[in-house]
Amino acid sequence: MIRITADSTCDLGEEVQKRNIGIMPLSVILGGNAYKDGVDVSPQDIFDYYDKTGQLPKTAAPSISEYEAFFAGYAEKGDTVIHFNISAKASSAHSYAVTAAKRFGKKVFVVDTKALSSGQGLLVMKAADMLEKGAGAAEIAECVNALRPKVNTSFIPDRLDYLYAGGRCSRMQMYGANLLRIHPLIEMDDGQLIPGKKYRGPMEKCVASYIKDLAERYPAYDRTRCFVTHSSADGELVEFAKKAVFETFGFDDVIETVAGSVVTGHCGRNTLGVLFIAE
User: Fold this and answer.
1) Pure H helices in the chain
2) What is the pLDDT of residue 158?
3) How would you classify the pairing of strands 272-277 and 151-152?
4) Residues of the chain scoring pLDDT < 70
5) Which domains, ranges and CATH numbers included, belong to the chain?
6) Which of 262, 271, 279 is nearest to 87 (CA)?
7) pLDDT at 170
8) So what's the pLDDT on residue 171?
């Protein structure tokens, strides 16, 4: 049997159970205590910690030995594993997983998705699609590696407080953006986050412009699915974004997912992204 697994940063929500995807949780460290992403810590815990301390929690990748134990749980039953890591430029998780996989030879394939959140999840879902159609492990790994540059991983934060606390923008940039209601596009480029276009005004207006820009930038795309992923964003904003995606694109499925604790800890509440695979 071939098993699809991923770091918890894939932010796939209910799709994990639906597609039988194994999850390896990263750690979130709050006040000296380590918790497992998606297991015993929630995004609300991140918000509460930041409000109380003014600091972001630290995150940690699973150790090599933890990856070895995780892979062994499948390999010892005779399964072949295809594991999807958060971008190697965002975490040491990939290098640790690669080292751990060497113990299992061709029984474990490790993919650096060069993405995070549901951008990573898009490749996981593509692998699950291929597996259902009977593809082999090597074929799946080769296909998803080729798709990595085509994955649109982007989002718009509501405020820059968390990006400032994480050292990703200056205090002046944070104050200016929050005062002038500037919402910069943040996107993945070859595995790392970079700033893009700056939107200005209420989040709903910015999200509408963002979705319009995506449609112009990616006129051809994989229609299978799109993720509208957010960090506990306002319900009205999420519904507005989903409706705009339906009206602008022609996806077969538009799936709402909520970012887990690791991703939330970097972007803050009310961040929203529209993620899909371009052609």
Assistant:
1) 15-18, 43-53, 64-75, 93-101, 117-132, 137-147, 161-165, 171-180, 203-217, 235-248, 261-267
2) 82
3) antiparallel
4) 159-180
5) 2-148 (3.40.50.10170), 151-277 (3.30.1180.10)
6) 262
7) 56
8) 55
